[in-house]
Design goal:
6-stranded mixed beta sheet; Four Helix Bundle (Hemerythrin (Met), subunit A)
Length: 464
């Protein structure tokens, strides 16, 4: 069997506490307490009730007056929910106190809980404990954060599927298959060279190729995962007066950018959020590309070129109502056809002549004034970003996942190369397979370190 080095992190026995609801006026606030002694801590907050929280069954709730354990002041009338291990979010004894909403009532409840013996939870500590207690794998824990931060229905749908274990199950199976292959190779190390089965390299190689193909399939979902979690960066570029600000306003359905006939009106990058087919976009209007002596405008143009180079998609506008000159042609020829849609703007006006565009670049006729071509532009954007109605039907990976998957692929390929060289390279193959398995294990948390956990759960808010 494969020996995996797993660093275990002890879970503190001290109950942790935090406000689990957003700050500000609300009907209800929730203070969550979790850990050994959480229910006994609750006894000190409701001294006047007959049956104390520590004596009640899990899955029950009751109404009581919360009293400060030190001052004896009556703080709030609340509902207390009892969760007994392992049947709670964290897998530990858990007490939830539902009091009146609002910043001051919530703070007073939390201060009372801390005075009763709890400590303030760190960001993501409740979910971290859920992972350490086997309630979630790491992909599910990350999905909690993705679900909370989802900007569109589609992003929420994918996060929900990952929270149900869709990605973790696939990675877990790959991990099991890789460790099994590693075990087979390590078992062969006990044989003398002349005793090795004739077909061992072929059989292990066939199994390894199958795993590599499945890893490659998951790596291919990275672009979709990146778009859902981070949002696509879409830049609107073009020469001055090409209609960039007008298009931004038309796409948003509001007057966000100033529109004026004077060239150079937009002198900085304007960013707005926009959803396209369920995918969040960072839509940027940029300064018109031209030579200028104005220092402020020149800085805006440099910023425009910078975001153009970083964009997932560039919508480059060409005003077809004015002659297509050398400056316009020079800019267009520098664009990446794979990441660009050309918008021929002001098509409600007479054309000034032919527009010479590179072969293969997508183009759409547009009029921000009449709305002509906007639906065609949206369709072209969906195609260029690789979105369609079948997208996100399977689990999609995040940056951490794809990095580890690529490491696993590299080690698997090196193992294949070692196996092809013969039995004298079995030790190298076994080591590479072990490294590949560990990379897969880190994705779901079969193998982890404190640094990895701190990085993942540091993204969370306090209270989750």
């Amino acid at each position: 069997m494969v020996s995996m080095s797993i660093q275990l992190q002890s879970v503190s026995d001290a109950p942790i506490a935090a406000i689990a609801t957003a700050t500000g006026p609300a009907g209800v606030c929730v203070v969550r307490v979790s850990g050994a002694g959480a229910l006994e801590l609750g006894d000190r907050l409701v001294p006047t009730v007959g049956q104390k929280p520590s004596q009640r069954e899990g899955g029950t709730f009751f109404h009581a007056r919360i009293v400060h354990p030190v001052t004896g002041e009556a703080l709030d009338d609340a509902v207390l929910l009892i969760y007994r291990a392992p049947h709670s979010y964290t897998g530990e004894q858990t007490l939830e106190i539902q009091g009146h909403g609002g910043a001051i009532p919530a703070r007073r409840l939390l201060e009372a809980v801390l005075a009763a013996g709890a400590r303030l939870a760190e960001p993501g500590e409740f979910t971290k404990r859920a992972f350490l207690n086997g309630r979630l794998d790491l992909t599910q824990a990350e999905a909690v954060c993705d679900f909370i931060q989802a900007k569109t229905e589609k992003a929420a749908h994918v996060a929900r599927a990952q929270l149900d274990g869709a990605l973790g199950q696939r990675i877990g199976l790959l991990y099991d298959r890789m460790t099994s292959l590693c075990a087979e190779v390590e078992h062969l190390l006990d044989f003398d060279e002349g005793e090795l089965p004739d077909t061992f390299a072929i059989e292990v190689g066939r199994g390894l190729s199958s795993v590599e193909a499945d890893i490659s399939g998951l790596v291919a979902t990275w672009n979709e995962g990146h778009l859902l979690r981070d949002g696509a960066l879409v830049v609107i570029s073009g020469l001055p007066n090409a209609g960039k600000s007008s298009l931004l306003n038309a796409l948003l359905g509001l007057k966000r950018a100033i529109v004026h006939d004077e060239p150079g009106t937009t002198r900085d990058v304007i960013e707005e959020s926009f959803a396209l087919d369920g995918v969040p976009l960072r839509l940027m209007d940029t300064a018109g590309l031209r030579k200028t002596d104005n220092e402020v405008e020149r800085e805006g143009i440099e910023r425009a070129r910078t975001v153009m180079s970083q964009a997932d998609l560039n919508i480059h506008l060409v005003d077809q109502s004015v002659p297509f000159d050398e400056d316009a042609e020079h800019v267009v020829n520098e664009l990446s056809a794979a990441r660009t849609v050309i918008g021929l703007t002001k098509c409600d006006l007479p054309s000034a002549g032919a527009v010479s565009l590179p072969i293969g670049i997508t183009q759409v006729r547009l009029s921000a004034a009449t709305g002509e071509g906007l639906e065609a532009l949206r369709s072209a954007m969906i195609a260029k970003l690789g979105l369609d109605h079948d997208s996100f039907a399977q689990p999609v990976v995040a940056l951490r996942h794809v990095t580890e998957l690529r490491h696993a692929m590299q080690h698997a390929q090196r193992a294949s190369e070692a196996l092809a060289k013969g039995s004298e390279h079995l030790v190298i193959a076994a080591n590479q397979l072990r490294d590949a398995a560990e990379a897969l294990g880190r994705i779901v948390g079969r193998v982890y370190s404190d640094d990895l956990l701190n990085t993942i759960f540091g993204r969370f808010c306090v209270g989750k």
